[in-house]
């Protein structure tokens, strides 16, 4: 099983959106039995909560299901997952700090590095400015790039 983990700050806006969009692509590609997808947050502020209603509304509009609950990332996740995708530079820095024994070596990526040229580096936090459709656009193009990358690396 290839294991993919999306990380943001609260695990209610961006990383659940990325998880849902990427899972949908994996399922459409017939790879659901080979690729496991999850998300988590750096903070525990929203642990146990559903995704933000604005994330759920955008996913619903695009007919993408999601029923995950927020959880905080654990050190064991850094061992267990094969690809860890950070939504922004702050998440990257925080993950590196959490990674005390080098488990993330070769596994930590900035998610938008998988988007085509011309896209920004970071998925902006939509919690206050409400730009959820823009986040959807970003995570969709990066999800396509990530799946292409994984398929090439694993000859799927
Ligand atoms: P996320 O967005 O990291 O994309 O889930 C946020 C969610 C909640 C908060 C900040 C960002 N918050 O401050 O509670």
What does this structure look like?
The N and C termini lie close together (12 Å). This protein is α/β, with parallel strands linked by helices. A four-stranded parallel β-sheet has the order 2-1-3-4. It has one domain (2-154): Rossmann fold. The chain has helices at residues 14-28, 53-61, 75-80, 89-98, 132-154; strands at residues 2-8, 35-41, 83-86, 108-110. 40% of the residues lie in helices and 13% in strands. It has five helices and four strands; from the N terminus they run E-H-E-H-H-E-H-E-H. The structure holds 4-nitrophenyl phosphate (4NP).
Descriptive key words:
4-stranded parallel β-sheet; 40% helix; single chain; Rossmann fold; binds 4-nitrophenyl phosphate; alpha/beta
- Please write the CATH class name: Alpha Beta
Q: Could you give the order of the helices and strands? A: EHEHHEHEH
Rounded to an integer in angstroms, the radius of gyration calculated over CA atoms is 14 Å
Tally of individual helices: 5
The total strand number stands at 4
Note the gap between the termini. 12 Å
Structural class: alpha/beta
**What number is the mean pLDDT?**
98
């Amino acid at each position: 099983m290839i294991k993919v983990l999306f990380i943001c700050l609260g695990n209610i806006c961006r990383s659940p959106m990325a998880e849902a969009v990427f899972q949908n692509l994996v399922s459409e590609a017939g790879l659901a039995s080979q690729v496991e997808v999850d998300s988590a947050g750096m903070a525990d502020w929203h642990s146990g909560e559903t995704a933000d209603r604005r994330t759920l509304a955008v996913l619903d509009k695009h007919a993408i299901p999601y029923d995950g609950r927020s959880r905080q990332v654990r050190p064991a996740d850094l061992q267990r997952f094969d690809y860890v995708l950070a939504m922004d530079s702050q998440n990257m820095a925080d993950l590196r700090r959490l990674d005390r024994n080098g488990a993330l070596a070769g596994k930590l990526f900035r998610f938008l590095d998988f988007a085509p040229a011309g896209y920004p580096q970071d998925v902006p936090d939509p919690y206050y400015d409400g730009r959820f459709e823009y986040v959807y656009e970003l995570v969709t193009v990066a999800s396509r790039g990530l799946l292409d990358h994984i398929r090439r690396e694993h000859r799927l």
